[in-house]
Design brief:
About 20% of the residues lie in helices and about 30% in strands. It is an alpha+beta fold and about 325 residues long. The strands form 3 sheets. Strands 1-15-16-2-3-5-4 form a 7-stranded mixed beta sheet, covered by helices on one side. α4 runs parallel beside α5. The chain starts with 7 loop residues before the first strand and ends in an 11-residue tail after the last strand. The chain has one domain (about 10-325): Endonuclease/exonuclease/phosphatase (Deoxyribonuclease I, Chain A). α4 links the parallel β9 and β10 (about 210-215). Belongs to the CCR4/nocturin family. This is Endonuclease/exonuclease/phosphatase domain-containing protein. InterPro entries: CCR4/nocturin_mRNA_transcr (IPR050410), Endo/exonu/phosph_ase_sf (IPR036691), Endo/exonuclease/phosphatase (IPR005135). Keywords: Hydrolase.
Length: about 325
Amino acid sequence: MEKLLRKHEDIAQAQSNCVTMTVMQWNVLADGLAQNGDFERVPQDVLAWERRSPQIIQEIAESKADLVCLQEVNRYEDFFRPQLERLGYTGIFWPKACSPAEQYGYPCDGCALFFRADRFHLTGPPQGQPFAVAGGLNGKQGMLLAVFRDMLAGCAVIAATTHLKAKAGQANEAARQSQAKLMMDRISAAARSISSSSANGTSSACGPEPLVILCGDFNDSPSSPACQVVRHHQLGLQCIWDDASPIQTPSNGASSPEQEPFTTWKFRSEGVSKRTIDYIWYSRDPRIRLLRRWRMPTEADIGESGLPCKVYPSDHLSLCAELEIDSLGAPADGGQG
C-alpha cells in the first residue's frame, strides 16, 4: 500500500568509538477516534483501520528504531504486540482510564513502549501512572516509564512516553503544565534511585547518571509552559527541535527553509490546526548527541486534505531521531543488574 516516504536529515557528524540509539515517537491515532475525529476533508475509507493499520506497521518498520514510543494505541493485544513482536520488539502497554475511544464502542487506548530485547534489559517493573487532578483523583492522562540497561552502550536508560491533555484554552494549558511537573518529578525520582544504587556499587552504568529519553504528544507548542517545565527542570533535557539545524548537503533531504516543520495538520469543523506538538526529549549530557532525524513532510507532500490522508495513517507525523552515545561497552555480567 502506498505510504509517504520519510527521509533523514543530518544534524551532526558521527564520531568514532560511539554507538547509536534510534528513537521513534508517534501518536498513531486510535481506532474509533479516527472514524469519529471530525476530519472534515478526509474520506471515511481513508480512516478505516483496515486501511491504516498496514501503513502504521510499515512506518514503524522503516524507522528501524531501537525504542518506539506510541500514544493512542488501542489495538495492543490483537495488533500492535503480535505485529511488532514479528519485527523483534518486546512491548509494554498502559491503558488510560475512561478512554474516549470507548464511548464509540472501541477498545481503550493508551501509551505503549516497544524495545529491542536483544539490546535493552528491563531492570524493574514498568510504571504506568495517571496524572492526578484537583482533589487528588486520577485523571485520564498519564505516562508509562521503564528503566533499562542498554547492553550495547553499557549504561542505564530511563525511557518514558506520555500523552498530555488536549484542547486549547487557559485551563487546559495549566493542566498540561501541571502534568509536565508531575511527569518530570517521577522521572527525576527514578534517576535518583539509579544514581544512588550506582554510588552504592549495586548497579553498573556509564557514568553516575542514567540517560533519559522522554517522548510524547504534548498537545502544545515548543514555547508552551508544559515544554518550558521539561526544558528548565533540574533533570536537564533537550528536544530534537532545540537549536539543531540540518547540515545542508545536496542529498540529505533537509527540510525546506521556506516552511516551518509541523507534527500535526488537520481540518476540523472548528478550524485548521497545524502545529508542532510532538517531541523526543533526551538528556542534556555530553555523552549523548543528536546525529540525525527524519525530515518532516511539507504540505505539498501530504496534500490539500491534511492529515490523515491516503498516504499517511495518522493525524500526527511520527518523529525518528538517531542519537549518538559514548560507549563504555556492555557490562561484564551481560546487563544483569
